[in-house]
Design a protein that fits this description.
This protein is mainly beta. Among the domains are: 74-170, Immunoglobulin-like (Sandwich); 179-268, Immunoglobulin-like, CATH 2.60.40.10. The protein has one helix spanning 2-32, and strands at 74-85, 91-101, 107-117, 123-130, 132-133, 136-137, 142-150, 161-170, 179-188, 192-200, 210-217, 223-230, 240-247, 261-268. The strands form 4 sheets. Strands 1-2-7-5 form a 4-stranded antiparallel beta sheet, with no helix packed on it. It is globular, with a radius of gyration of 29 Å.
Length: 273
């Protein structure tokens, strides 16, 4: 009990001391027309804390400073699992998940996962560490979780449903893109669809690992395939070098003639923790 009374007494003395100091500081500030040291900040020093009207909103800054400062949002705008059998009898499945940045800030795509199930709801396959391209999405851009893999011992009708689990978060790394020029898309007898072009580093930094990924679309704007490569040499600042990549495991009906549009991204390998 004595300890409690002593603690209460000390608290009361400290409170009285703080009140006295605050009163002295305010008196000094009002006497010379300047803010006294030790006082609370004046309104001119709190611009990062917007004022509000009676409804809790900022009448002057509502348009320029939205209440949701993160702005991170996305939608899965297309998904499809396509099954086919190649010329040597191997069953493949191509999985495409289109991710659209519907927010107001950049997004970071990490490797995702998905399940495949048949019409009865039975699990056919489950894949993890599925690549996603490009790694950083600007607002309004589309990225893809893309995979091509074989299906062992599958004898169904090919009508599979993909259940995607993308890994998407607000980006904390910069969005960096390199220029891509001289692009050609052709068919190769042995390697399927072949994409060639040049990538140019217009930054002042040399990059030792550059990803280049192409997305293919049909005449209706539907994604039908993708190929990617990693440059095997450094991309020096200001340099322009050629690249070549092929899609030998694309579905048989994805050819240069069936591709109506090709979008290519080139960017450095980036990690976000």
């Amino acid at each position: 009990m004595k300890k409690k009374l002593l603690a209460l007494l000390l608290c009361a003395l400290m409170l009285m001391s703080l009140v006295a100091c605050g009163s002295s500081g305010n008196t000094e500030g009002s006497g010379n027309g300047q803010q006294g040291s030790g006082t609370s900040p004046q309104p001119s020093q709190t611009d990062n804390q917007p004022s509000t009207d009676g409804n809790g909103s900022d009448p002057e800054q509502t348009d320029s400073q939205p209440q949701d400062h993160t702005g991170a949002a996305y939608e899965i705008t297309y998904q499809n699992a396509k099954v086919w059998t190649n010329s040597i009898g191997t069953t493949w499945v191509q999985s495409i998940v289109e991710i659209t940045n519907t927010g107001s800030t950049n997004l970071f795509l990490s490797s995702g996962a998905y399940d495949l199930e048949d019409a009865s709801g039975s699990l056919i396959a489950s894949e993890s560490m599925v690549s996603a391209f490009p790694s950083v999405l600007a607002p309004g851009e589309k990225g893809y979780m893309y995979d091509e893999t074989t299906l062992d011992d599958y004898s169904g009708d090919g009508n599979l449903t993909i259940l995607p689990r993308p890994d998407v978060e607000e980006a904390t790394v910069d969005l960096i893109r390199y220029n891509v020029t001289d692009l050609t898309v052709t068919d190769d007898e042995y390697s399927g669809v072949k994409v060639m072009g040049r990538v140019e580093n217009t930054t002042e930094e040399t990059e030792s690992m550059v990803y280049i990924v192409a997305f293919f679309y049909d005449a209706s704007g539907i994604p039908i395939g993708s190929v990617f490569t990693i440059l095997s040499e450094d991309l020096e600042a200001g340099a322009k070098i050629g690249f070549e990549m092929s899609g030998f495991s694309l579905p048989d009906d994805v050819t240069a003639d069936s591709i109506a549009e090709t979008t290519v991204y080139a960017y450095p390998l980036q990690f976000q923790f």
